[in-house]
Amino acid sequence: MSSSAKAIGVFGGSQGESRSIYWRCPECGTAYDDQCMTVPDPYIAVCDLAANHATKAPIQFEVILAPTPIGGTVTIDQREILVTDAFCFLFNGCLEIDFESPGADGSCGNIPFGDATEFSELAGQTISIADCFNATYDNRFFKPSFVFDHDYYSISSLRVYAIRYTRDSNVLSLTFEFEAKLDDSPRTISVRSQLSALCRPVERSEVISRLEPIPIRFAKTYLPLLGLPAISKDSTCADVISLFGEPDHQGGGNHPICGLIPKWIRYTFPSFYLHFQIECHVVTKVTIMSREGPFAASFPE
Predict the structure, then answer these.
(1) For residues 240 and 250, what is the distance between their CA atoms, to the nearest angstrom?
(2) Which residues pair with 75 in a beta bridge?
(3) Could you confirm whether domain 204-298 is CATH 1.10.150?
(4) Residue 206 exposure: Cα atoms within 13 Å on the Cβ side
(5) Is the peptide bond before 42 cis (omega within 30 degrees of 0)?
(6) Phi (first) and psi of residue 219, to 5 degrees
(7) How far apart are CA 255 and CA 260, in angstroms?
(8) Integer Cα distance of 279 and 281 in angstroms
(9) CA distance 11 to 33
(10) In this predicted model, what pLDDT tens digit does every residue of 109-154 receive, in sequence order?
């Protein structure tokens, strides 16, 4: 190897299945989620951004897989469930926690953590929402929810405490408790949990496939994952055009059915469309859409 530095990683998944190896480059801090059927010993990885390292040369790292306790318990009403595997995902400032148990899988999603883009920013934070149904969110369609054993629940009130983030092993320890209502049913449940979960990084393919509008304050984090220049949270339409050139398409204005639609401009790239929403000359949201996605056929090239 061209570097003696070693990276610390942990792995998830079960034997016989594709396993996720989570590791972070010791040179630049970039997080990775590698997939493999078996875990080689030693596991050698290469940072995709090695050309930007101080050495300006490709660098391989031996990833030391640290033994890390992952899992915990989830208690639904009076039923305690042992969690054998758990991971979390952070996108647009919202945390999603997925867990596996011997009998069923579950997830708790759309937990708002403000402007956070790194798991380290969550450590020590407590999120309390007394009325989730009437709280204000970046996207009103993405409210806190809970899924367990194929049942979908809307969370009515919650409290989440991110106890700590362990950078070397990329693990977030947290507790959460909430009340939730089963959709299309009067049934309600009380849930509390204490978990340690692997932190899964946001990857390029997910940014393209999520079809979720990105508030402008997060654009500087996610656009570079697509090889695009970062834009600031106060960028104007003119700023975007100076970076990307004249848009391929644009629109907005009064619509006979939808009413007033904010101004927008759109660019076409080989694998995705880049859509900017503009209000009062300022960019407010960015949406990335795959050219192979469900809306691709309706877009003129």
Answers:
(1) 13
(2) 80, 192
(3) no
(4) 10
(5) yes
(6) -60, -35
(7) 6
(8) 5
(9) 9
(10) 999 999 999 999 999 999 999 999 999 998 888 899 999 988 999 9
Region for residue 96 given its phi and psi (left: phi exceeds 0; alpha: psi -120 to 50; beta: otherwise): beta
In the block, residue with structure tokens 């309706």: 298
**Burial of 238 per CB tally in 10 Å (0-12, 13-18, 19+):** exposed
Q: What are the start-end ranges of the H helices in 47-149?
A: none
Q: Which helix (H) or strand (E) holds 206?
A: helix 204-209
AA identity, residue 117: T
CA-to-CA distance for 54 and 114, rounded, in angstroms? Answer: 33
- Render the burial of 198-222: b for 16+ CB within 10 Å, e for the rest: bbbbbebebbbebebbbbbbbbebb
What is the spatial distance between Cα 74 and Cα 69, in angstroms, rounded to a whole number? 16
| CATH 3.30.1450 domain extents, the chain | 204-298
- Listed in sequence order, the residues at least 6 apart from 21 whose beta carbon sits closer than 8 Å to its beta carbon are 9, 10, 11, 32, 33, 34, 35, 36, 39, 43, 45, 63, 65
Instruction: Return the closest-CA partner of residue 265 out of 294, 293, 231.
Output: 231
pLDDT, one tens digit per residue, over 254-288 is: 777 777 888 999 999 999 999 999 998 999 999 99
H or E element that contains 244: helix 237-244
